[in-house]
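Suppose you are handed a protein chain with no further information: no name, no annotation, nothing but its sequence. What can you learn? This example shows the usual starting point.
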Amino acid sequence: MDLTFNFYIGATPEEVWQILVSDEGVKQTFYGCTLQSTFEIGSDYAYVGPGNDGDDTVHVYGKILALEKNRTFSYTEHAGPSYRANHAELETRVTFTLELVGACTKLTLVHDHWPVDHPSYANSQQHWPMILSNIKSYAETGKTLDFGF
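A reasonable first move is to predict its three-dimensional structure. Written in structure tokens, the prediction is:
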């Protein structure tokens, strides 16, 4: 049931890290969202951007579990309130790991701790490869992909 994806990116771990945490990188690769957080372990975060509730829609939110600059970023994840009435009880975990392989970066994403019959599983299974492809494309070319929406 875990979702695991590996992408090899022609960029340094430092460059990929900046895409994961900087306002510009997140906005380009996560469908126009910003990542609001103090980036401290135990602190809250939210991906906020255009959506169901206008420009300030909370798409996902949670708490930061682990953060090692240029290496690991892990957090709990809840769907935003406008997506699921029971969003607070639907918790999963997302972990990004960056590893230097030759002259490129191996980005591994593991999305796990799925409760049985979680209503966002299929959506996450579809959208993570698109987001990760955007990260790869943006790191290598400075451009993102056009998914037609």
